[in-house]
Amino acid sequence: MEKKIIIAQSAIILILLILLFKDYGLPRANVVQSNVLPKSTTSTRLLAAGVYSGTLAPQSHLIFNFKPLQEQMKKYLVDRNLNVSVYILNQRDGSSTGINEEAPFEPASLNKLPIAILILRKIEEGGLRFDTVLPIMPEDRDSRSGTLYKEDVSELTVHALLDRMITESDNTAFRVLSREVTLKELEALSTYLDFYRDDIGYTYDSLSNNTYFISPESTTHLFLSLYLSTILQPQDDEYLLSLLTNTTFDIHGVARLPKDIIIAHKYGSYFVDNKKYFHNCGIMYLAETRIFYCIMTQNLDKPEAEQTIGDLVHMTYTYVEDTRAELTTRKL
After folding, report:
1. pTM of the prediction?
2. What's the CATH number for 67-128+180-330?
3. Tens digits of residue pLDDT in 218-240
4. Helix axes 234-244, 112-125, angle to 10 degrees
C-alpha cells in the first residue's frame, strides 16, 4: 500500500514539472515568434524608444553611405566654380557628409535663431511674456530685410515680433528683441552650441554686427538643439520649429520639392557693399528620416545663390528618397 502511494505521488510531481516547464521553462524548439516586442519594463528596454512607441518602424533601413551624394555635389560646384560649403547630417543614425563644412561665413540672418531661443528662455523663466509690449525705436527700423520698418506702429508684442523675425526674417523685429538679450547670454549659448566659432574668429562688439563667423557644421548644432529640445521646453521648441516651416523663402519652389514635404528652415541674406552671402539651413522630415542640411554661399548674386541652394537641396532629397526605395526593394 505504501509503495502505491509513493508511486502516485511521484507521478503527480512529474506531471506538475512537465506543466511548469511547458509554460515557463526553456524555449521550445521550432517555435518562432516574429514582429512581437518582448514584454519589458522601461528600465530594461534595449531598443530605440521609437520602436516601442511605434514611431520607428522595425526593419526600416538606415542610410549610412552619403559618398555618392558628396561626389555629385562636388562635381556640381567644381563645374560651376562656386564658393559654397555644405553639411548634411542624417540625425537618425549620425551619418554625415560635407564639403568645406567648417569654412567660416558671416551669419547674415541665421543669427536671428539664437536671439529667438534666448527670448523664449526668458519667457519660460518669467522675465518676459508673449504679450509683453516692446517699443520700436527709430534706430530699430532697418529696410534690408522685412517690412516692419515702414509700418506705422510704435510697439508690438513679443509674440508678434518673434513671428516677424523668424517667418519674414525681419531686421527691425530682430533689433527690438536683441535689446532684451545680453552679450553674456549670447556668448553662453554660443559656447554651448559651438555656434559662433572661436577657432575661426569672432567678436561680440554688438548683437547686430557681422564681425563673427559661423560654419555649416556649427549651424547644424543649432537645429539639433531645437529638434532634440535640449535648451527650451518642448512646447517652445515646437513653436519655433513651426515658425520655421512657414518662412517667406520658398525652399520647396527653388528646390523643386513636393509641397507636402515638411521642412523647418532659416535663410540668411546679406548683400551690403561688396559682401554677398546667402545661406539656407534646416531639417527635412522624410518619413522616419530627419535630414539636417546647411548650405552657405559667398560672392554669388542672389538669384544664382538661390538656384545653387535649390539644386543642392534637391540633390539631397532625391538621393535620400532613391536610396530608401532601393534598400526597400533589395529587402536586405
Report:
1. 0.82
2. 3.40.710.10
3. 999 999 999 999 999 999 999 99
4. 150
